[in-house]
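call fold target=IBH1-like N-terminal domain-containing protein
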Amino acid sequence: MESSPSAAAIVSTNANINMDRTRRKKKKKSQSQQQQSKQNKNSQSHAKWKTDAQQQIYSSKLIQALSQVNINPSSSSAPRQGRAVREVADRALAFAAKGKTRWSRAILTSRIKLKFRKQQHRRQRFASSSFSSSSGSTAVTTGSSSRPSRKHKVSILRLKGKGLPAVQRKVRVLGRLVPGCRKQPLPVILEEATDYIAALEMQVKAMSAIAELLSRSNSGAGSTSEPMSS
């Protein structure tokens, strides 16, 4: 009669153990399924940049954006024009990504931030010019005093970077190369870098194809104009 309560307790503990095991198995299975689905989504997003359809979409967006840029080969400001073409190509790439990735959102928002900084810079220049007209010497001293502080900050950041291990330094460099990933953890940086590299490869192919078409059209126009000149 005394053994029945202990037997019931043993049965209940075994049942609880079995329930815990089944819960752990279900949890592991759901986690593995989530990881697998995430990997499949990432592989699909990286593979889309390698398709001809995506290259055509990006090429059309790039041509539309380049048509709005004033490019003059005879102009002396060639670096500025090259920078403008690069910014247009990157924005078209971010538009083709539809802002679904962190790097594409960072490129799209960088233009807005740049405009805001330019407006702020203009306001500061206007305020400093108005202040220097009233007291010219004070504006020069304040400008000269702010320069060493910037150099000091840069030197501190470099010293901090030198003290990091080699792997962390490489991760930091990679995070700086990928837009919007400067302060992100390693899994996010690797995921964004994989997609960004695939997008850049597609960008190079599209721009090479456009450059080849332009060179062919220019050579064709030159060959047709030669008989007329003679």
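return ok
The two ends are 122 Å apart (CA to CA). The longest helix spans residues 3-47.
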